[in-house]
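[job 0412] stage=fold_complex status=start
inputs:
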Amino acid sequence: MSVIRESVSIKKSRIGRDFMKRRFVSLLPLLVVLAIFFGFVLFGLSSKYVKATLTKSGFSVDLICEKAEDGLDFIIDINNDGPLQINLALVRIRLTKNDAYIWFSNWDFRREEEAISSGSSKRYTLSMELPKEKFEEIINEEKIGLNVTGVYEIKEIGDMSFAYPMEVRLGG
Amino acid sequence: MAKVRKNVAMLASTIIMATVFQGFTLQAIAPSWLVVYCYPLGSILIFLCGFVLGQEWIELGKGFFAMVRLIFYSILLGMFISISPVFFGAEFANLDMLFSFLLGRGFIAILLWCALGMVGVFTGVSTRI
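[job 0412] stage=fold_complex status=done
writing structure:
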């Protein structure tokens, strides 16, 4: 009787082992398929990231400030040395004298129309009107402090901000 | 053959986990599904990678060691991609996202990956008996 029981238990364990063997399925092919998909994502993402970073670091602003009748005129060159097109959305200039705030102005742009393609620059002339007392406060200064900030859009990436504190000589 | 399978498993896992790593560090660039679901996606995928590593390495100890290597390789590859613009002339200061991640949530993410990966290895080895 015990011999029969033993043979039954051996059979059961064999069946169990065979069952486990049959159940084993390697997931390596699934991993390889996923890796191909994620590899494409990674490649696209990396090249986009490199281009976006180069565009971001290739962005620069040149500014000339001139006296006008009741304020200041700014000639701004927006340079795009990066590989992607940018669209200017907003420029804000904050005027300071000895680090003290005087005035600021905003200029909104229609970003669809203000495209600056790769490796080119665009010139904008912006006018800042000042109240009389503020104008008189800065008009005799040789140099004024400006904080040029704004937003531009890198195509297919999104909005980026910029900030350039600078000291300029008043011309005109 | 076993060595080739192991290398393929390690390479495939590294690519997958390095991509998930970008969901944490390159949030402005990465696809939105990768950014939004990077924690659950990373958890599922590290478990799957651990599972396959466990199946391929068979022994638990070696499987765990392979998992540590996988996490190391994927973070290394992810960091290499994050700093790759430097090789094309970009400034190093633009890489603030990588450093803020590594100093902040990175430690927790790596611990989570480690734990789930080890569970995956254990499960993978168990199915290979």
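[job 0412] summary: The mean pLDDT of chain A is 83.
[job 0412] exit 0
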